[in-house]
Give the backbone structure.
Amino acid sequence: MSDYVLRLDDVHTDIGDYQVLHGISFNVPQGGVHVLLGRNGAGKTTTLRTIMGLWRARSGAVVFKHHDITAMHTSDIARLGIAYVPENMGIFGGLTVQENMRLATATGGFDDGRLGHIFELFPAMEKFWDKPAWSLSGGQKQMLAISRAIIEKRELILIDEPTKGLAPSIIRAMIAAFEEISRDTTILLVEQNFLFASSLGRNVCVIDDGRIAHSGRMEELVADKDLQTRLLSLSLDAHQ
Amino acid sequence: MSKPAHIAAMFDRIGGVNALPVVLMIIALPLIGSFSSWVTLTVAGLAMGMMIFLMASGLSLVFGLMDVLNFGHSAFISFGAFIAASVLAWLAAWVGADSLTLNFLALFAALGAATLFGLAAGWFFERVIIKPVYSDHLRQILITIGALIVSEQIILAVWGGSPIPVPRPALLEGSFVIGDVAIEVYRVFAFFLGLAVFIALTLVLNRTRIGLLIRAGVEDREMVEALGFRIDRLFIAVFMTGSALAAMGGAMWAGYQGLISGALGGEMMILVFIVVIIGGLGSIEGSLLGALLVGLLGNYVAFIFPKLALASNMILMMAILLWRPWGLRPAVGK
């Protein structure tokens, strides 16, 4: 139990009249990148939002370390050490890069060492430090969203489709950044880009129709083309 | 560079939308013909604009941050006006005294009472009326209009249906003369009070952490919560501030008009909504710009084309929305 940073136990979530999650259960071990894969509408984003308390689980349990966070307020969940990077990045366009980052700190001040590390990972953040966030490109906004998530020490970062709409060169930079970040932080990554996910992920859960259809080591899924086709309607070759 | 692009670049060079009130003043001067009349109308327009800004700025933040359509906002304006009138009437001896200190104390008491009432009523309104209907615009409209009707009936019950006079402290009475231009002291005071509130709001929004949270919350409330902040507590603070500013604006307007009736809030609310819409939701700078344009245009048009006076603000709103559908200075860059 203590090896897991996050545990979902038979989680059911409804959105309005529709049941989206039908008893999701999985564990996220400490450290590394763990991937949630699945087709469009399978329930990946709903899973992340349920963990974050943005949508309430109707039943089941979400346990973060030793805390049952199933019914906790989103802000309390965040303060426990979970950062969330939504699919739309959640950037405040009217605020500068600096202000976006400052909001993600507990005291409003920066740790110089951490900030320097972020500037090494994403030099654009230093370059556009005082620019309004709306003026950044899509890739730079994604970098800002991730920088904001790591500006302070977090136990777990939930990231929803970070490569959506990004150029291959930026995706390569993201891979390098995620490898670096995952050395001291656990990442739960929702992704549809299998090439990106497979290059980073240690473990994988495949969600289909609101249920866990498969879970295991990423290398097993990469090696089994039939399984990929059956679960995801794709193969790694098709993306290469 | 094409001709429209050249005009746009030139417009940006002279200050962009921020320069619109100045552009309006310059256009009005030859149309009015007399410099002294122009100064009088301009000062009146600026003072009126600042009082409308006081009433509108809170509503704009409430709209932008909380996504709440508060049609009951005018109740705070009315209550602010009536409470200030009552306090001034009660302190009649200080109001008319030949002492600046007593005059100032009476003014401070009237504005303070109205503002404190706005804070308390804002807290009650948010907790009891608004909170149950978050995320439901139709119910918000219905319940806030209902609350407005109840508020108007309370005003009728307490202060009666007849218009009541509002005494002005002696230090704000009269005019001072520069050349052949007479400028009312009250208008100058209203302008500087509005300017002080604008500067204070701008400093809070741009230099403090709570201001940063409000600006972020206007854009994406959910993300503010995901960063670890309780947006509901921010909602109460913003709603109370907006209500207090509306009450302060109502108190100032009461002194400006000299005679108030229960219809005051409803009448001002049309202008307030126009200001919020043309300024851009959630934007304090936009509210100021919109309020100054409404104030100046209203005064100029009433002098130059009296028959168009009532329609002028609607025409202004249509023109600005056709040009910039998100308003002059929306909270988020478009």
Remarks:
- DSSP finds 14 helices and four strands in chain B.
- Chain B has a mean pLDDT of 90.
